TrEMBL record:
Cofactor requirement: Mg(2+)
Presence of the UniProt keyword Metal-binding in the record: yes
Protein name (database record): Phospho-sugar mutase
Entry-linked Gene3D superfamilies: Alpha-D-Glucose-1,6-Bisphosphate, subunit A, domain 3, Alpha-D-phosphohexomutase, C-terminal domain
Originating organism: Streptomyces antimicrobicus
Family that this chain belongs to: Belongs to the phosphohexose mutase family.
UniProt keyword list: Isomerase, Magnesium, Metal-binding, Phosphoprotein
Chain ranges of the Alpha-D-phosphohexomutase alpha/beta/alpha domain: 46-180, 208-303, 318-425
Superkingdom as given in the UniProt entry: Bacteria
Residues in Alpha-D-phosphohexomutase C-terminal domain copies: 495-515
One Pfam family hit: PGM_PMM_III
Length: 549
């Protein structure tokens, strides 16, 4: 076994086109580090509905040029098999380590396979790539990004010609083509022949943002903005300037792209501490709101003033922003279907019902939300919002930021705030309190064990509330295809709901909790909020015990 492992490592090294990872592998072989080699050669990085994502490094279980070339060759074979020979593939990339290399390799493979390739001019937000696919009439698109993952990761996100991320069975069919790829030397990779796009695509994307806002609407909100060391800054500033908003005050230490993400433990606005510098900047300039993008700018976080918070600011949950944007669109007269993932708040359904617009729930991920027929607005609790599906059929943190800014400006002109509108929604529909129990693991078997334990011994009650319905979502439902998840509904007036699932992009077990607290007549929501948090905390405690985490 030892000899076989060394032989495989040496064979991989011999055809590695990247001197850096080839040297890394040679050093492991020379050191005889069998544990590390076994980890890197224990299988292959799996191509799924999010494409590829993993830690950078040498070997088939890491993200590297060899893995990307094989993925690109498999995608090219899939596209040609679907009759798209000669079709255009658009490639975008963020500012992470190796992203530009992976983008160039993809363009070279597509060109060598007889397809046409066009590469965005520099690191740009993922929504620009998603827009460019349909704008340019491409048959597919690739975005090289790991979104909000740690610095050591990178990824490979694939879209088809409708501008949506791939779903089954396309993912399995592409994976099968990847498995058929032989030696890398047999994959044609010319040194040129693809198109290097200019700023015309970005300009077209910015022009498309005109559709998001109402002409003549107020634009007076003052904003602090952080790009979280990602690629969002220049596009956000251009969009705000185009639409007449005051230029956001930047969190300077996080404004420019930096693949090391030096000021945060994880470059995700949801993670503890990630927004500290933004709040410190807000304490100096006193804005109306704080807006953050994640590194590839497809997510949007919003914070509001809060005297009770130590920083003076409170991050709104994704469900809160999702409800605010829905209410704003309803007020603007939006028609069509409002969609959300099953792990998002049920408040959207109540807003849609009251407004007389359609409402649908999908599986987690915008690959599902974007495919809802007649979609007008879609959101997911993990800070993802699709506010212009005709422009970008994916979550878009830039157009979402514009719509948040418009709403905050309108409220400001009325002497009101985003928090005031949230209170209005709670009084009208009940206080929808949500929370999450999220467990990051080093060993993925911990997640599998927790899911197995919950399936073998589902909880009879949580927070003293009897579990009246326990669904294993691997069996699917009348409206949802199968997925690895569990859903519980609890008895009582709180309409409590719990969903447990493994994360699709990170080594996490995620548990999504919601309780709906009836609100008595009157504007004082403090007791309802306190009661909601009390029930959520009790559910979290009991669920952790039930799952063995």
């Amino acid at each position: 076994m030892q000899d076989d492992l060394i032989t495989r490592a040496q064979a991989w090294q011999a055809e590695d086109p990247d001197p850096e990872t080839a040297q890394e592998l040679a050093a492991l072989v020379e050191a005889g580090d069998l544990t590390e080699l076994a980890d890197r050669f224990s299988g292959t990085l799996q191509f799924g509905t999010a494409g590829l994502r993993g830690e950078l490094g040498a070997g088939p279980m890491r993200m590297n040029r060899s893995v990307v070339i094989r993925a690109a060759a498999g995608l090219a074979a899939y596209l040609k098999g679907k009759g798209h020979t000669g079709g255009l593939v658009v490639v975008g990339y963020d500012a992470r380590y190796k992203s530009a290399d992976f983008a160039r390799d993809t363009a070279a493979v597509m060109t060598g396979a007889g397809l046409r390739a066009a590469v965005l001019p520099r690191p740009l937000p993922t929504p620009v790539l998603a827009y460019a696919i349909r704008h340019l009439g491409a048959v597919a698109g690739v975005e090289v990004t790991a979104s909000h993952n740690p610095p050591r990761d990178n990824g490979y996100k694939v879209y088809l010609g409708d501008g949506s991320q791939i779903v089954s069975p396309a993912d399995a069919e592409i994976a099968a083509e990847i498995d058929r790829v032989g030696a890398l030397a047999d994959v044609p990779r010319p040194d040129s022949g693809w198109q290097e796009l200019g700023d015309e695509v970005l300009q077209a994307y910015l022009e498309r943002t005109d559709a998001v806002l109402t002409p003549g609407s107020p634009r007076g909100v003052r904003t602090v903005y952080t790009a979280m060391h990602g690629v969002g800054k220049d596009v956000v500033l251009a969009a705000f300037e185009r639409h007449g908003f005051p230029a956001p005050a930047l969190v300077e230490a996080q404004a420019e792209p930096d693949p090391a993400f030096p000021t945060v433990a994880f470059p995700n606005p949801e993670e503890p501490g990630a927004m500290d510098l933004a709040f410190a900047t807000a304490a100096q300039v006193h804005p109306d709101i704080v807006i953050a993008n994640d590194p590839d700018a497809d997510r949007c976080a919003v914070a509001v003033p809060d005297d009770a918070a130590e920083s003076g600011w409170r991050m709104l949950r994704g469900d809160e922003v999702g409800a605010l944007l829905a209410a704003h669109l309803v007020h603007k007269g939006a028609q069509g279907v409002f969609a959300e993932s099953i792990v998002s708040s049920s408040l959207l359904g109540r807003i849609a019902k009251a407004a007389g617009v359609g409402h649908e729930e999908t599986l987690t991920g915008f690959k599902w939300i974007s495919r809802v027929e007649g979609l007008r607005y879609g959101y997911e609790e993990a800070l993802g919002y699709c506010v212009d599906p005709e422009g970008v059929r994916d979550k878009d943190g830039i157009t979402a930021a514009l719509l948040v800014a418009e709403l905050a400006s309108e409220l400001k002109e009325q002497g009101r705030t985003l928090s005031d509108l949230l209170d209005d929604l709670a009084i009208e529909h009940g206080l929808h309190a949500t929370d999450q129990l999220s467990v990051r693991v080093e060993d993925l078997s911990v997640i599998a064990s927790a899911m197995a334990q919950l399936r073998a011994q589902p909880p009879a009650s949580l927070a003293g509330l009897r579990v009246v319905s326990a669904e294993d979502l691997t069996r699917g439902t009348q409206s949802l295809p199968p997925t690895d998840g569990l859903r519980y509904y609890l008895e009582g007036d709180y309409r409590a709901r719990v969903i447990v699932r493994p994360s699709g992009t990170e080594p996490k077990l995620k548990c999504y909790l919601e309780v709906v607290v009836p609100v008595a007549d009157g504007p004082d929501l403090v007791p309802a909020r306190a009661r909601g948090q009390e029930v959520l905390d009790a559910i979290k405690k009991d669920l952790a015990v039930a799952a063995g985490i």
